């Protein structure tokens, strides 16, 4: 049986050389394909929302501790006020870590989708 | 400061920019090259370029100035600027790259299958770009005035000239090289003087004139509303910035778009350490700059004031060079993406049209810059983020993640956001920064939810207008590209 790759006409862009512009092994007009794609989108959205909410919760809790925590305003580490250390330095690793975890998990979601499609 | 120092630094940066630009010219030939560097730029280059483009006058001068004025309240600005990229990574980076569109109007048109949506998006994008270029030109005017004593207009005009020349000559390919170079220049230009100043201060045991937590002027502390509104603006504004988005199209695929964003986050985190330290040093050793209304020039004046002599002059030259790198890179990034939009809608997308559009994109904000006055740089850029978050962000986010979005909903949402946020900006400016209430000065906390609500509500009412192509487009956005397949 010959396999046919169905590609949509691209609107305005040209493909980078040597790459397939779009994956079309599961055309979205088949029922199975639609289900797979929907579940991929849903899992990616859930992942993004979880990471975003987690980050915002950490940020809020930190801000509340810095404002209302007893004695926090006077605390100094190596002569630098704790508030400055946390807001000026400490938050950035949290941002980086969230981003790194997300990137890994998102790639894993995509790999799982690929496996599903290839098993079919 | 020695006027020759500032002038020399500016000319050196302009020449370096032009040389890299012309070097790039030899590589860019086709229309595709001009727009998005043919999508073959490696992630590290690309990430440096994104960082270089993103770190504007607001980051280079404004953040330190604002920290000098308002201390820990201002530390939320760099946090928001960086975390905005986290949101971009989570919700936009990979799908947008996979959409295959060059500009945001391309994306909305393809997603909603409507020419009218494209027109409205183009208008909003051009407005955002112009609003964003103006503070860059203000920064250039301020830098030239303070460092050389020349009139303000020289600075802004010079930046527009250099940008027009590089963009017209080289397009995006050379811009990518220029931007990457400028990230590293900016980082060096802030980091080296800060380290030197710290060493000198530690060496001669200078006593601070003021305590770190005390505001040098009688600036009131920001309330919870201002913090929340600022964070909403910065977190959701970043993912709609036209010059940031176009940068993602130079990644070969969705996964590398994510990798690039991850590197960008690292680069930004490292960069923002230095304005923060500069601002803190300013509060302790140069509080009089805040009292004399020169807070935004803190980064420029600090080395001359605290180090002095030839070393001080050399460090000042480095900072001025970095500052101009900031104005040039952000302005040229914006001009490239605006001219992409303008030329496709007005001139049919030819290379000649792109060049014409580039001149148009740069000259109009120059007029605005002449007519308006320098506000606090970080603050005025914050307002642009609020405007972007209220207009482009809802359409982009809902377009990527929600099948129910319709053209009517998108247009209604963008117009609502533009009217509410733009109206608040105009009224707030007319009332003056001292008299405007917090909810007018920082509209994002209510204008962004309102824009989202209107977009969703109108889309639900006009359900029958969901485009027939929605399934095809959604899978194009989210399905991972395959690795190169040779035998099929």
Low-pLDDT regions of chain A: 7-24
Q: Give the biggest sheet of chain B.
A: none
Instruction: Give the N-to-C terminal Cα separation of chain B.
Output: 68 Å
Helix content percent band of chain B: over 70%
Mean pLDDT of chain A: 76
- CATH classification, class level of chain B: Mainly Alpha
Estimate the global geometry of chain B from the Cα principal axes: globular
Shape of chain A: elongated
CATH topology value of chain B: Sodium/glucose cotransporter
Q: Which two chains have the most extensive interface, and how many residues on each?
A: A-B, 55 and 61 residues
Mean of all residue-level pLDDT scores of chain B: 81
Key terms for this structure?
heterodimer; A: 120 residues; mainly alpha; two-stranded antiparallel ribbon; 2 strands; elongated; B: 488 residues; Sodium/glucose cotransporter; 21 helices; 78% helix; globular; membrane (chain B); cell membrane (chain B)
SSE inventory with pairings:
The complex is a heterodimer of chains A (120) and B (488).
Chain A: H1 31-68, E1 76-77, E2 80-81, H2 82-119
Helix pairs in contact in A: 1-2
Chain B: H1 3-25, H2 31-36, H3 43-54, H4 57-70, H5 76-91, H6 93-99, H7 104-112, H8 115-148, H9 152-204, H10 224-237, H11 242-248, H12 254-285, H13 288-291, H14 298-306, H15 309-346, H16 351-371, H17 377-401, H18 407-431, H19 438-441, H20 444-461, H21 470-478
Region (Disordered) (chain A): 1-26
Protein name (chain A): DUF485 domain-containing protein
Transmembrane segments (chain A): 47-69, 81-102
